[in-house]
Amino acid sequence: MLPAYKGRCLKKKAFSIQFDDVILEQQIPVNGRHIQPDGIGRINKNGKDHNLLIEIFVTHKVDEQKLQDIKDLNCACIEIDLSDLLDTDYTEEKIKERLFTKYSDRKWLNNPIYKQQDKELQIRKEKEEEERREKELQAERERHSEAVEFVRPFLSGELPPSTFNNHFCIKPYSLQEEILKVLRSVYYYSFFDPSEDDIQNAYYQARLLEYLPEIFPLDEIFENAYDGKSFIEYIDSKNDSKDRTILFTTVLKCVYRKNFIVQRYSWDDRDYYSAIDVINNVLESYRKKQETLRIEQKNSLERHVLVFCYDIIQIRANESNKKTFFQYIENYQYWSIISSIFSLYLHHIIFSKLSNFVQLTENFITNHAEYAHLYLKFARSYECSTNNYTSASGENKLEKMEKVANTVTANHKLDDIVKLLFPKMWYIWQI
Predict the structure, then answer these.
(1) What are the C-alpha distances in Å from 208 to residues 153, 162, 205?
(2) 283 with 235: CB under 8 angstroms?
(3) Helix, strand or coil for residue 45?
(4) Over the stretch 244-296, which tens digit does the pLDDT of each residue have?
(5) C-alpha count within 13 angstroms, C-beta hemisphere, residue 308
(6) Tens of pLDDT along 386-408?
(7) CA 245 to chain centre
(8) How does residue 20 score in pLDDT terms, banded at 50, 70 and 90?
(9) Which residue, 255, 151, 242, 158, is CA-closest to 210?
């Protein structure tokens, strides 16, 4: 019984063989010396003799030198392990049965034919793999070219952005993925700081953002856009022409529509303008970068936040909760808590005469300690981490708030409305 063979590519099962002759312990000259295998099995096939060296391992395995000599002879050789029989009452019949019926106790030490077949098979498979990769690369290049041609008319204004999804959804999935890759590269590298010659194309790109599929990684593209202050300041620094005003107004529209899904609606026969309409007015009034908001800018931002809250409650809240949530907005004590959280998120203090976040945090500790868990969630978040909560004396007001929070019972009355107003951040906290 010959053992199985397992090369890099070639696999052979164990199989039985009938020798024409077996010669025991015959010396074979090699490299100026002799080796003496335990046996040599011979088969005559088509008038040609084929030899198989047989080594029996009882007390000593074939050493490295002998193995190298066998390889130099270019002879096939197997080793049969019978060492487990050494301390047993074995018989000749038992050994014969073992030799003729088992194959797990033996292995190939050398098999030149199998090695050559394995090498040839490996070369063939590598060639096939190379051809397969080349086909994939060619298909990828063609898919990329098709994706570029698909997005080009939308990015140049030749086709209206509102029709993007109608064209996109009928494309094969693999092409859809490539289209999104092309768009991602466009928005990463050429969108936020266009040259004067590219402002018009950037405007078309900004318009298209609103109509891109939900699977498009908008959060990655606008990684800093959700940071109210830094985004507004960035626009302040770039907003030096009418074209740029139009461009960044379009960008901000997309940010709010995609993130908050704010819409126009009519309620109790009164028209409520969405947060977008108000923030656009704020944008157009920003002309240079400032550390703090001017009075008129602060007033506009406060109006925007109020309208945003009313919009969100009306659109997203259950009918049973709407009345309660509107009462929270209209109650001074509750609104003071909610507006403090908005201040953290926007990096500007609104609806308060306090001038910095140290004062705001100290005031919150004094008047609303039972809601400290909400304040701390926001203040410790990545979005609000750039606010300064350390006083001139070096006291960290957030650490002070945490100590106070541990001594009072948390009031979760406003959790639901905060969750409604900031669903994305709330979802992250739950994770």
Answers:
(1) 11, 8, 5
(2) yes
(3) strand
(4) 666 666 666 665 555 433 333 334 444 444 444 445 445 445 433 333 556 66
(5) 23
(6) 788 999 899 999 999 999 999 99
(7) 34
(8) confident
(9) 255
Task: Tally Cβ neighbours within 10 Å of residue 362.
Answer: 18
Residue 184, C-beta contacts closer than 8 angstroms, at least 6 positions apart: 216, 217, 220, 221
| β-strand partners of 34 | 29
- The span from the CA of 125 to the CA of 119, in Å, is 10
* Predicted local distance difference test score (pLDDT) of residue 296: 64
For the chain, the straight-line distance linking the first and the last C-alpha, in angstroms and rounded, comes to 60
Residue 195, SS3 per DSSP: coil
Q: Which long-range contacts (CB under 8 A, 24 or more apart) does 417-425 make?
A: 417/313, 417/325, 417/328, 417/338, 418/338, 418/341, 418/374, 420/312, 420/313, 420/316, 420/317, 420/325, 421/309, 421/312, 421/338, 422/341, 422/345, 423/316, 424/259, 425/377, 425/378, 425/381, 425/383
| Four-CA torsion 369, 372, 375, 379, nearest 10 degrees | 110
Strand 48-57 vs strand 76-81: parallel, antiparallel, or unpaired? parallel
Rounded distance, CA 416 to CA 350, Å?
Answer: 22
Give the type of residue at 85.
Answer: L
Question: What is the Cα gyration radius of the chain?
Answer: 39
Residue 212 DSSP class? S
- Identify the band that residue 304 occupies on the pLDDT scale cut at 50, 70 and 90: confident
